[in-house]
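Researcher: Let's do a round of design. I'm pasting the structure tokens now; please hold your answer until I've finished.
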């Protein structure tokens, strides 16, 4: 009799441990890492009459259609976890022969509000090739999930101007991608 009671007492923690371990493994199997290419964003920059220090080259809202992404992976709903920019490239397109020689560096920040209070720097670049028409931003591998309070976040691109712009208005665009983890509900 004591042996059966002892076996049951020992079996209960083992069963609980197996169940919780299996649930964690099942959760890990259904969790998906997704890399999403952001739509190309075109913008223009016109040099202000007075300039000093850092200037805002672009400021705007980036929206991610999370419902479509979740549906594409067969999830009706899910929790978005760790979210990172995996790459960001800024390119000058107008005038066509222009280079980024007028720009000495850039910084990229994100925020969850349009006033950018607070904002967090997620990447930067020093323009080491003044003859290039694009630069690859070095990302800080910083989780931007806290800034995705809705399926969107605010994005700002700063630049330090070190020379004459190639035209009164310069047309540029940026391409980027983010990676995030989705856990189905």
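Researcher: That's everything. Go ahead.
Model: Designed sequence:
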């Amino acid at each position: 009799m004591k042996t059966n009671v002892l076996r049951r007492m020992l079996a209960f923690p083992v069963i609980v441990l197996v169940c919780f371990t299996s649930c964690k493994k099942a959760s890990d199997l259904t969790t998906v890492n997704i890399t999403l290419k952001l739509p190309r964003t075109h913008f223009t920059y016109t040099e202000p009459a007075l300039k000093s220090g850092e200037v805002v080259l672009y400021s705007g809202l980036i929206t991610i259609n999370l419902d479509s992404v979740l549906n594409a992976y067969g999830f009706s709903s899910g929790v978005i976890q760790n979210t990172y920019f995996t790459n960001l490239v800024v390119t000058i397109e107008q005038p066509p022969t222009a280079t980024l020689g007028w720009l000495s560096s850039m910084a990229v920040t994100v925020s969850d509000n349009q006033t950018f209070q607070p904002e967090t720097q997620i990447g930067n670049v020093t323009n080491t090739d003044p003859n290039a028409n694009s630069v690859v931003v070095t990302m800080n591998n910083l989780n931007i999930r806290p800034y995705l309070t809705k399926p969107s976040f605010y994005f700002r691109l700063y630049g330090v101007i070190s020379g004459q712009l190639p035209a009164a208005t310069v047309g540029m665009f940026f391409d980027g991608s983010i990676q995030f983890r989705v856990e189905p509900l």
